[in-house]
From TrEMBL:
Pfam families: CBM_2. GO terms for molecular function: hydrolase activity, hydrolyzing O-glycosyl compounds; polysaccharide binding. Residues 125-216 form the CBM2 domain. The chain crosses the membrane at residues 22-42. Residues 72-119 have a biased composition (Low complexity). Residues 47-119 are annotated as: Disordered. It comes from Glycomyces luteolus. This is Cellulose binding domain-containing protein. GO terms for biological process: carbohydrate metabolic process.
Amino acid sequence: MGDAAGAHDDAPGGRGRLHGRLLQVLGGVSAVAALIALWQFGVFGEGPDRDPVDVIEGVETPSVPDGESESEGAASAGAASATVESPSESSAAATSAEPSSASPTPAAPSETASAATEAAAPASCTANLTLENAWDDSVEVTVEVVSTGSVASASWEIDLDLRDVEIYNHWAMRELEDGRYGSEDWNGRLDPEENAIAGFQATVGDHAELPDAVACTARA
């Protein structure tokens, strides 16, 4: 009886000690939880003594799609970065795009001299007279007009205002005025060294003069 009673008396004391230990454990856990909460609040909280964390913006790293190897992804990233122009390259491109102030290359002296000579050389011609027939008071004369210039002529005129010579018939040329005759529409253009044949019949006096050549004027 005594032993049973002693065991019965000891049971409440043992339970009390167990409850005391549990309370100690719970108190320690609560303390640790409180410390963790305080640490998190100090680091991540928005306290008045802590500056907000700035987000640093940088070059976005391209993501590698599924199925693409790392080497291909790196190559794509390198190609993307290569398209970014540096300020120096942009300045160089802008400078090269400015219009050049260099003067145009002048023409060669020989070309300039040749063009000036051609522009200064007008068309020219000569007119030669040949006596074909002669009668008592009249003659028949052939007129040969030759282009002597370096450019083609578009028309020509000859001076047949001769002493004691009166033309009453002519061919392959038309009468102008003051004893001058000009080319027809079909024989006025003469290339260099090309000729045109015309002629006339005239009465002559005692003092008639029939030269071998007369004045000729060509127009280009």
